[in-house]
Amino acid sequence: MDNGNTPATKHDLGLLEHALKEDIGALRQEVKQDVGTLRQEVKQDIGGLRQGLKQDIGALRQELKQDIDMVRSEMQHVYDNLVERIADSETRLLQAFYSYAESNNKRMIQVEGNSAAFLNRIGALESRILEIEKRLNMPPTQ
Predict the structure, then answer these.
(1) How many CB atoms lie within 10 A of CB 16?
(2) What are 90-103's pLDDT values in tens digits?
(3) Rounded CA gap, 130 and 124, in Å?
């Protein structure tokens, strides 16, 4: 090819075609290398994402375990409080029953004491009547 004013020959076109094929081959090789590099970078990025996801999932699991343990602890605390309150209620109920039984027992003792005093007075009256009957010489009647 000289100054560009003459028509291209078959030889010139063949050289040009050969040069273009070489350029296309080199370009293909570069594209393959770039694609390979890009694939490697994507694999590394995906591997990093996977590792990050694994770490995030592990952290989330740990947080969930802590939350579950906290909820269990709170439930145990609530259960313990409930048991304590039930026991306190039982104690108060038993104390109320004991107080009632104690006052009832005092009342029964008083009734029995009154009954004994009443019987004692009746016995004294019967003795006095018997003494009167003896003085008057009257036999007891039934």
Answers:
(1) 12
(2) 999 999 999 999 99
(3) 10
- CA atoms within 13 A of residue 101's CA, in its CB half-sphere: 6
**φ, ψ for residue 140, nearest 5 deg:** -65, 145
| Residue 23 pLDDT class (50, 70, 90 cuts) | confident
Reading the block at residue 114, the tokens are: 């009154």
- Residue 46 confidence (pLDDT) above 90: no
* The pTM of the whole model exceeds 0.90: no
On whether the CB atoms of residues 63 and 71 are closer than 8 A, the answer is no
Q: Tokens standing for 35?
A: 């694609």
DSSP string, the chain: --SS-SPPPHHHHHHHHHHHHHHHHHHHHHHHHHHHHHHHHHHHHHHHHHHHHHHHHHHHHHHHHHHHHHHHHHHHHHHHHHHHHHHHHHHHHHHHHHHHHHHHHHHHHHHHHHHHHHHHHHHHHHHHHHHHHHHHT-----
Distance between CA atoms of residues 51 and 58, nearest Å: 10
